[in-house]
Amino acid sequence: MEHGQLNSIGLASNDGVIAAFCIAISLLVAIGAQHLKGSPYFRCFAASLSFFLILTAASVLKSLAPKYLGLVEHIAILLSTLSITTVAYKYRKVAKELK
Amino acid sequence: MIVLLPNLGAIILGAASILLVQRESKDKISPYIKAVIIVISICLMTIATTNMLYHNSGSEIFVTVEIYSMAIIAVLWFSLIYWVIYAEIRKEARWRERELEALNSVALAVGQSMDLPQILRNALLSVIKIGNFDVGFIYLLNKQKNTLELATSYGNIPKDLAEKLSTLHLGQEV
């Protein structure tokens, strides 16, 4: 990842594998989150993790197309934080109901 | 602008998340959620900040900070996933244990007597005890009249309601 980001010349031999692995886990988390019913927070946490993995994949591959993948990276971080904000909002709602 | 807006948005949202959970002192359901939200928010804010700073200055130190933040988030998330799975497995195991306990208790209660009303009474009492219910009924089907007749009951039931519930027609709403 450091190689791809710092040099912006090309990818290291395993960067493609890391990115593919991130995307695969991201999809797995998104699919697995459909079955999570234990807590009101888990789905949002899963969405956040999914976007975080997309962010990591975009960061790893950024040297391929800095402009577009950089944009994907920035949007993914925004969406990931938005999911965490949803968790925080739900947390506050539950805490208020318990009072 | 493309770099600034999403990252600035992420920083604002991260700060909002921390403020939202900071105001509430307790959540009895999930005591660790608050800590996880705060740490993940701080890490995401750090990534957004270093992203912006790296684009402006090009300094390598920001990339290093970004990588460490990513590593912390990854560890946190996987711990959370482990916690979720472990909690689900424990819940399932507890449920099965209760189910077996109930079956065992009913079987023991039924085996204690040869008298049908006594067997039904014992079975009902064990189910009431396991389920922690306030009231309970056992009905027997009268095939000739096509009705359900109250065999035994448990709990304080008003007299008029008890009379109404003594015989039920099949499909009748209670």
Features:
heterodimer; A: 99 residues; mainly alpha; B: 174 residues; 3-stranded antiparallel beta sheet; 5 helices; 3 strands; elongated
Beta percentage of chain B is 5-15%
Q: Give the SSE string of chain B.
A: HHHHEEHE
Biggest sheet descriptor of chain B: 3 strands, antiparallel
**Cα end-to-end separation of chain B:** 66 Å
The total of beta strands of chain B comes to 3
Oligomer state of the chains in this structure: heterodimer
Average of the residue pLDDT scores of chain A: 79
Mean pLDDT across all amino acids of chain B: 81
Distance between the termini of chain A: 46 Å
Largest sheet of chain A: none
Rg of chain B, nearest Å: 30 Å
* Integer-rounded radius of gyration of chain A: 16 Å
Share of residues in strands of chain A:
under 5%
Total count of helical runs of at least 4 residues of chain B? 5
Number of DSSP-assigned strands of chain A: 0
The percent range for helix content of chain B is 55-70%
Topology of chain A as a string of helices (H) and strands (E): HHHH
Summary?
The complex is a heterodimer of chains A (99) and B (174). Chain A is mainly alpha-helical.
